[in-house]
Amino acid sequence: MRLQRKGQEPEIPTASMADIAFLLIIFFMVTAVFSATKGLELKLPSDDEQENRQVEEEEAVFIHVYGDYLLVDCKPMEVSDILPYLEPKLVRDAQKHVILYTDSEAPYARMIEVYDELAKSKGTDLDPSEWPFEVKNISIPTQSEVQNFIEIFGVNPFETHCDGQ
User: According to its UniProt record, where is this protein mainly located (predicted)?
Assistant: First the structure.
């Protein structure tokens, strides 16, 4: 014969489980570090500033980054020679566009190196710029923008730009 136990079976109290889970969620939300991804700081024009228009070759300086070498207006150039080349052009016309095109096979770091060189013209509070100009209009077309241009017009503007020279 089996003996019956007197009293209740021990139970885990679950009434406060929801409260504890809620407090843990709040704790982790408050203490978590929210990191915003930071990219290149680009000054984008406002919608009402002006309508989109095609930039003529005379109005722009084209910089092509292809792997380990780059072309500035179809001339082979080192990164350190970009600003001296741009100086007479941008002193004359401060609104001249600088179009930076990076080939899909080129390393991303190379494009950043060229962009940083262009940004040196602005200078900083700690290191005032020695350049009498500022590169204001930098355009970096995406691969999809280039692809759309090719589909619409049937030519790659960055390949045909240097063909005649």
Answer: membrane
